[in-house]
Amino acid sequence: MTNRILGVLGGMGPLASAQFMLRLTLLTPAETDQEHIPAVLWSDPRIPDRGRARQGGPDPLSALMAGIDGLRAAGCGAIAIPCNTAHGWYDRMAERTGLPILHIVDAAAAQLALVAPSGIIGVMGTAATLEMRLYQDRLEARGWQVITPDEREMAELVSPAILAVKSNRVAAAYAPLAEMAQRLAARGAKAVVLGCTEIPLGLQAGPSHTLGVLLIDTIDALALASIAWAKPALGIIKLESTAA
Questions:
Q1: Same fold: 6-103+221-234 with 105-218
Q2: Under CATH, to which class is 6-103+221-234 assigned?
Q3: 105-218 under CATH 2.60.120.10, yes or no
Q4: Which of 5, 45, 151, 193 has its Cβ near the most Cβ atoms within 10 Å?
Q5: With 0-12 CB in 10 A as exposed, 13-18 as middle and 19+ as buried, what is 137?
Q6: Segment 165-182, tens digit of pLDDT
Q7: What are the domain boundaries of the chain?
Q8: pTM, whole model, 2 decimals?
Q9: DSSP assignments along 87-144, one per residue
Q10: Does residue 104 contact residue 175 with C-beta atoms inside 8 Å?
Q11: What is the residue-averaged pLDDT of the chain?
């Protein structure tokens, strides 16, 4: 039993937030209700689009902070944000709250280190996530070489697939995402980080186990980091479903 309450700042998108709560529950070692992690989900799809904010659209920071403030008021002791692009505002969010915010890239890196501790790593994500170098800088600082889709691949494969998941056309996202993962593997990637929380949902709509490359699901990685925070006595938890 744990007294630590996890705050989940979600709605970016709603399906990814729901999947995070599902995976948090399924990955928690528990045999009774009382052994699970108390959590509060703040799912607000009204938060301005993070990618458009990079192009001059409304800044999402105030809406993100409203969610964090609500979670703090609910008694939460740490924040998990199952949206990669929102981590472009991580430093400003962390400056304005005294609560620890679990960083999704660090969570992914912890899982990546267990299965591919060195070498070339592929990263798929939103255009904004890649432009902000959220993964490239943090992973390269740890010694990995990072490769990403090129502009044409983003426009033709990755970005349309992410939009398909956000519009509940999940099955339509599988083929382009599978093709992109295999292209990165063909370029030498030992593993591919699914650096957008819509991407795992799209790949799960088809036979992702046939792709022949290790996949790091950032929803699962963040869920495991959350479990480690709530139940520190468990130590490091390794994903059992990383190999595809």
A1: yes
A2: alpha beta
A3: no
A4: 193
A5: exposed
A6: 999 999 999 999 999 999
A7: 6-103+221-234, 105-218
A8: 0.95
A9: GGGHHHHHHH-SS-EE-HHHHHHHHHHHH--SSEEEEEE-HHHHHTTHHHHHHHHTT-
A10: no
A11: 94
